[in-house]
Amino acid sequence: xxxxICIFGANGRLGLALTRxxxxxxxxxxxxxxxxxxxxxxxxxxxxVVGDLRNRDAVADxxxxxxxxxxxxxxxxxxxxxxxxxxxxxxxxxxxxxxVRRLVCIxxxxxxxxxxxxxxxxxxKSAYQKQQPALARDRAEQEQRVAAxxxxxTLVKPPRLTNGNARGNVRSGEALKVGSFSSICxxxxxxxxxxxxxxxEYVDKRVVVQH
Length: 211
Known about the structure:
Layout: E1 4-8, H1 13-24, E2 28-33, H2 36-39, E3 47-50, H3 56-63, E4 68-71, H4 84-98, E5 102-106, H5 119-131, H6 133-147, E6 152-157, E7 160-162, E8 171-173, E9 183-185, H7 186-195, E10 205-210
Parallel strand pairs: 1-2, 1-4, 2-3, 4-5, 5-6, 6-10, 7-9
Antiparallel strand pairs: 8-10
Helix pairs in contact: 1-7, 3-4, 4-6, 5-6
Protein backbone atom coordinates (compact mmCIF):
# COMPACT_ATOMS: atom_id res chain seq x y z
CA UNK A 1 0.00 0.00 0.00
CA UNK A 2 1.34 3.42 -0.98
CA UNK A 3 2.12 5.64 1.98
CA UNK A 4 0.44 9.02 2.07
CA ILE A 5 2.33 11.93 3.56
CA CYS A 6 1.53 15.59 4.12
CA ILE A 7 4.20 18.26 3.68
CA PHE A 8 3.57 21.64 5.26
CA GLY A 9 5.67 24.38 3.71
CA ALA A 10 5.82 22.61 0.36
CA ASN A 11 6.23 25.93 -1.46
CA GLY A 12 9.58 26.74 0.20
CA ARG A 13 12.95 25.76 -1.21
CA LEU A 14 13.38 22.83 1.16
CA GLY A 15 9.71 21.86 1.13
CA LEU A 16 9.59 21.79 -2.65
CA ALA A 17 12.72 19.63 -2.81
CA LEU A 18 11.17 17.31 -0.22
CA THR A 19 7.95 17.12 -2.24
CA ARG A 20 9.74 16.28 -5.48
CA UNK A 21 11.83 13.56 -3.84
CA UNK A 22 8.77 12.06 -2.16
CA UNK A 23 7.04 11.82 -5.54
CA UNK A 24 10.16 10.19 -7.02
CA UNK A 25 9.97 7.60 -4.24
CA UNK A 26 6.41 6.76 -5.17
CA UNK A 27 4.78 8.31 -2.12
CA UNK A 28 1.28 9.78 -2.23
CA UNK A 29 1.88 13.43 -1.35
CA UNK A 30 -0.40 16.13 0.01
CA UNK A 31 1.36 19.49 -0.33
CA UNK A 32 0.17 22.37 1.83
CA UNK A 33 1.01 25.69 0.15
CA UNK A 34 0.13 29.27 0.97
CA UNK A 35 -1.03 30.55 -2.44
CA UNK A 36 -2.49 29.55 -5.78
CA UNK A 37 0.72 30.71 -7.45
CA UNK A 38 2.81 28.37 -5.28
CA UNK A 39 0.86 25.32 -6.41
CA UNK A 40 2.14 25.82 -9.97
CA UNK A 41 5.61 24.75 -8.86
CA UNK A 42 4.46 21.39 -7.55
CA UNK A 43 5.25 18.20 -9.51
CA UNK A 44 2.43 16.30 -11.23
CA UNK A 45 0.45 13.86 -9.12
CA UNK A 46 0.58 15.89 -5.92
CA UNK A 47 -2.61 16.73 -4.05
CA UNK A 48 -2.39 20.39 -3.08
CA VAL A 49 -4.13 22.21 -0.26
CA VAL A 50 -3.94 26.00 -0.44
CA GLY A 51 -4.35 27.77 2.87
CA ASP A 52 -2.93 29.48 5.91
CA LEU A 53 -1.12 27.40 8.50
CA ARG A 54 -3.16 29.16 11.17
CA ASN A 55 -6.41 27.99 9.59
CA ARG A 56 -7.28 24.91 11.64
CA ASP A 57 -9.84 23.59 9.15
CA ALA A 58 -7.42 23.77 6.21
CA VAL A 59 -4.71 22.04 8.24
CA ALA A 60 -7.13 19.30 9.30
CA ASP A 61 -8.18 18.72 5.68
CA UNK A 62 -4.54 18.26 4.66
CA UNK A 63 -3.68 15.83 7.47
CA UNK A 64 -6.73 13.57 7.12
CA UNK A 65 -5.85 10.10 5.81
CA UNK A 66 -2.07 10.57 5.99
CA UNK A 67 0.49 8.16 7.43
CA UNK A 68 3.11 10.79 8.27
CA UNK A 69 3.41 14.57 8.42
CA UNK A 70 6.39 16.82 7.69
CA UNK A 71 6.82 20.39 8.92
CA UNK A 72 9.20 22.06 6.48
CA UNK A 73 8.29 25.71 6.99
CA UNK A 74 10.30 28.50 8.56
CA UNK A 75 9.97 32.26 8.97
CA UNK A 76 11.22 34.48 6.19
CA UNK A 77 14.25 36.53 7.14
CA UNK A 78 12.57 39.67 5.78
CA UNK A 79 9.26 39.09 7.57
CA UNK A 80 8.38 40.00 11.17
CA UNK A 81 5.60 37.39 11.14
CA UNK A 82 5.88 34.98 14.09
CA UNK A 83 3.86 31.85 13.43
CA UNK A 84 5.84 28.60 13.67
CA UNK A 85 4.82 27.51 17.17
CA UNK A 86 1.10 28.19 16.70
CA UNK A 87 1.08 26.64 13.22
CA UNK A 88 2.81 23.54 14.53
CA UNK A 89 0.29 23.28 17.35
CA UNK A 90 -2.52 23.34 14.77
CA UNK A 91 -0.80 20.48 12.95
CA UNK A 92 -0.33 18.50 16.17
CA UNK A 93 -3.99 18.96 17.10
CA UNK A 94 -5.10 17.91 13.62
CA UNK A 95 -2.88 14.81 13.72
CA UNK A 96 -4.29 13.75 17.07
CA UNK A 97 -7.86 14.23 15.85
CA UNK A 98 -7.13 12.18 12.71
CA UNK A 99 -5.14 9.46 14.47
CA VAL A 100 -1.89 10.27 12.61
CA ARG A 101 1.19 9.48 14.72
CA ARG A 102 4.41 10.19 12.78
CA LEU A 103 5.67 13.77 12.76
CA VAL A 104 8.99 14.93 11.34
CA CYS A 105 9.74 18.61 11.95
CA ILE A 106 12.76 20.57 10.73
CA UNK A 107 14.12 23.42 12.83
CA UNK A 108 17.85 24.15 13.05
CA UNK A 109 21.04 23.45 14.97
CA UNK A 110 20.89 26.87 16.65
CA UNK A 111 17.23 26.53 17.66
CA UNK A 112 16.34 25.77 21.27
CA UNK A 113 18.84 24.53 23.83
CA UNK A 114 21.10 22.27 21.74
CA UNK A 115 24.37 22.35 23.73
CA UNK A 116 26.88 20.91 21.25
CA UNK A 117 27.79 24.13 19.44
CA UNK A 118 31.26 25.51 18.88
CA UNK A 119 32.21 28.85 20.43
CA UNK A 120 31.58 30.58 17.11
CA UNK A 121 28.15 29.01 16.69
CA UNK A 122 27.20 29.92 20.26
CA UNK A 123 28.13 33.50 19.43
CA UNK A 124 26.02 33.37 16.27
CA LYS A 125 23.10 31.98 18.23
CA SER A 126 23.39 34.69 20.86
CA ALA A 127 23.47 37.39 18.18
CA TYR A 128 20.38 35.93 16.51
CA GLN A 129 18.50 35.83 19.80
CA LYS A 130 19.32 39.50 20.41
CA GLN A 131 18.50 40.64 16.88
CA GLN A 132 15.34 38.54 16.45
CA PRO A 133 14.11 37.73 19.97
CA ALA A 134 10.49 37.03 18.97
CA LEU A 135 11.49 34.70 16.14
CA ALA A 136 14.05 32.91 18.33
CA ARG A 137 11.49 32.35 21.09
CA ASP A 138 8.92 31.17 18.56
CA ARG A 139 11.21 28.54 17.05
CA ALA A 140 12.28 27.33 20.49
CA GLU A 141 8.63 27.05 21.49
CA GLN A 142 7.92 25.16 18.28
CA GLU A 143 10.42 22.51 19.37
CA GLN A 144 8.91 22.39 22.85
CA ARG A 145 5.42 21.83 21.49
CA VAL A 146 6.60 19.03 19.22
CA ALA A 147 8.44 17.34 22.10
CA ALA A 148 5.34 17.62 24.32
CA UNK A 149 2.93 16.45 21.62
CA UNK A 150 2.72 12.79 22.61
CA UNK A 151 3.15 11.87 18.94
CA UNK A 152 5.96 9.82 17.38
CA UNK A 153 8.04 12.88 16.63
CA THR A 154 11.51 13.65 15.33
CA LEU A 155 13.06 17.12 15.36
CA VAL A 156 15.63 17.43 12.57
CA LYS A 157 18.24 20.11 13.28
CA PRO A 158 20.51 20.86 10.33
CA PRO A 159 23.27 23.48 10.34
CA ARG A 160 23.83 25.67 7.24
CA LEU A 161 21.91 24.44 4.18
CA THR A 162 23.59 24.29 0.78
CA ASN A 163 22.53 23.50 -2.77
CA GLY A 164 23.88 20.88 -5.13
CA ASN A 165 23.48 17.18 -5.74
CA ALA A 166 23.19 14.61 -2.98
CA ARG A 167 26.57 13.51 -1.64
CA GLY A 168 25.43 10.64 0.56
CA ASN A 169 27.99 11.11 3.33
CA VAL A 170 25.47 12.14 5.96
CA ARG A 171 26.20 12.00 9.67
CA SER A 172 23.37 12.11 12.18
CA GLY A 173 23.23 12.06 15.95
CA GLU A 174 21.90 13.60 19.11
CA ALA A 175 25.25 15.05 20.19
CA LEU A 176 27.13 15.96 17.01
CA LYS A 177 29.38 18.99 17.32
CA VAL A 178 28.21 21.85 15.11
CA GLY A 179 30.90 24.29 14.01
CA SER A 180 31.25 27.21 11.62
CA PHE A 181 31.93 24.91 8.65
CA SER A 182 29.12 22.44 9.40
CA SER A 183 26.59 22.11 6.59
CA ILE A 184 24.35 19.76 4.67
CA CYS A 185 22.90 20.02 1.19
CA UNK A 186 19.14 20.13 0.83
CA UNK A 187 19.14 16.99 -1.31
CA UNK A 188 20.72 14.88 1.43
CA UNK A 189 18.61 16.49 4.13
CA UNK A 190 15.44 15.58 2.22
CA UNK A 191 16.61 12.00 1.85
CA UNK A 192 17.24 11.77 5.56
CA UNK A 193 13.85 13.25 6.41
CA UNK A 194 11.94 10.84 4.19
CA UNK A 195 13.95 7.91 5.56
CA UNK A 196 12.47 8.69 8.97
CA UNK A 197 9.02 7.46 7.89
CA UNK A 198 10.14 3.86 8.27
CA UNK A 199 12.81 4.39 10.93
CA UNK A 200 12.37 4.36 14.69
CA GLU A 201 15.98 5.34 15.47
CA TYR A 202 15.17 8.97 16.20
CA VAL A 203 11.57 8.75 17.39
CA ASP A 204 11.03 11.19 20.27
CA LYS A 205 14.48 12.67 19.70
CA ARG A 206 16.25 15.77 18.42
CA VAL A 207 18.84 14.92 15.78
CA VAL A 208 21.51 16.98 14.05
CA VAL A 209 22.20 16.03 10.43
CA GLN A 210 25.29 17.19 8.59
CA HIS A 211 28.04 16.17 6.17
